[in-house]
Specification:
98 residues, mainly alpha, 2 strands, 4 helices
Length: 98
């Protein structure tokens, strides 16, 4: 199959099914992926992501083919983790008080 044919045939739903199969090692019907199928599926996922992934997750291929790394702050925001407020009170001592 040519690359353009593959990309035209792969809908977001097909991409998700392939992604899930690669993650769990099984096709939706329960059949195990062979190593060759896993490799081909991963390549297809990366090609699809490099073309259409405009909102790349951490450590995934973004549109344009670049690997997307998110900062710690971006990941916390994505997962809804709020930073605790900085304490208002700081203990201060003069040098002779220590």
């Amino acid at each position: 199959m040519e690359l353009e044919q593959l990309l035209q045939a792969m809908t977001p739903e097909v991409f998700q099914r392939i992604s899930t199969a690669v993650e769990i090692g099984k096709w939706p019907d329960g059949t195990l992926l062979t190593p060759a199928q896993r490799d081909a599926a991963m390549q297809a996922m990366m090609i699809y992501q490099s073309r259409y992934n405009t909102e790349a997750e951490h450590m995934s291929v973004a549109a344009g083919g670049e690997i997307k790394f998110k900062s710690k702050a971006e990941l916390k925001r994505d997962f809804g983790v709020e930073e605790p407020p900085a304490p208002d009170d700081i203990a201060r001592f003069d040098h002779d008080q220590l």
